[in-house]
Design brief:
This protein has 255 residues and is an all-alpha fold. It has one domain: Four Helix Bundle (Hemerythrin (Met), subunit A), CATH 1.20.120. The protein is built from ten helices and no strands. α2 runs antiparallel to α3 and α5 packs across α6. The chain starts with 17 loop residues before the first helix and ends with a helix.
Length: 255
């Protein structure tokens, strides 16, 4: 099930794991597995990838990185199939992604000899890239009657959806805001008028999808298996600069 009505769907370069994710979701639809269980599975896959990176098993690490992207697509698909949207699941997924992203970069730092300063700067850049993509994508989804589990602003605690406890929603929301709040606020500060944009061209969203986490993990996997692991952290730093290019395009040409 897509997050967008058919006429607004675009080619999402970061979403290559969606077909596999849908297959996993269909296999689990009539079981006791919940979307939260699937999120735990992608965390395990990410941890296996980190272990392989640190032990020099780069091909296996690449496979686990890609598997993580596939499983990451499955939790949301399962929630839609079971008709059990969840703020807890949405926040848990994002919190897990951020922590894994930091651990991935720390593992790359370990094998490449990069400094902790540049690694942390790359982490900030990686999160800002994902935040910009998420910001525009959520605006699009909310404005064209797409999936509304994600919100443009997460400052206000949401009301728990059926099947989840308000206390857990509040806890996950608070953790999410601590981890993601500064990135969300910075991107909103860079382009506050984007919220008034009715829609975004498909070519723009496809181009921007290189900032999606799935595409980033695919690049990491490709650089690992081709022996270019030294380029991962500098590459993330370089891609971060294009944030300002995308925002300039939006402000000048997409109203």
């Amino acid at each position: 099930m897509s997050k967008l009505p058919a006429q607004y769907r675009f080619i999402d370069l970061s979403d290559y794991g969606r077909p596999g994710g849908r297959w996993i979701a269909r296999m689990l639809q009539d079981t006791r597995f919940t979307p939260i269980h699937v999120t735990v599975l992608f965390i395990i896959s990410g941890l296996f990838a980190i272990g392989c990176i640190l032990h020099g098993d780069y091909v296996l690490a690449a496979l686990f990185l890609i598997l993580k992207s596939v499983i990451d697509a499955a939790d949301g698909e399962l929630a839609r199939l079971k008709k059990t949207p969840s703020y807890v699941g949405r926040y848990f997924d994002s919190i897990a992604d951020l922590i894994l992203n930091l651990l991935f970069l720390l593992a790359f730092m370990q094998i490449t000899g990069s400094t902790i300063i540049w690694t942390l700067v790359a982490f900030i850049g990686l999160q800002l890239q994902g935040t910009l993509y998420h910001y525009y994508y959520v605006i699009l989804r909310n404005n064209v009657n797409g999936d509304i589990t994600s919100r443009i602003s997460e400052e206000v605690q949401p009301i728990a959806l059926p099947g989840e406890k308000q206390s857990m929603v509040n806890l996950c929301h608070s953790i999410y805001n601590v981890l993601y709040g500064p990135f969300d606020q910075f991107i909103h500060w860079l382009d506050p008028e984007a919220v008034h944009t009715k829609s975004f061209p498909k070519w723009f969203m496809t181009s921007l999808s290189i900032y999606g986490l799935g595409f980033q993990l695919l690049l990491m996997a490709l650089l690992l298996v081709t022996g270019w692991q030294q380029a991962i952290i500098p590459g993330i730093l370089g891609m971060t600069l294009f944030i300002f290019v995308f925002i300039a395009i939006r402000r000048l040409f997409i109203k």
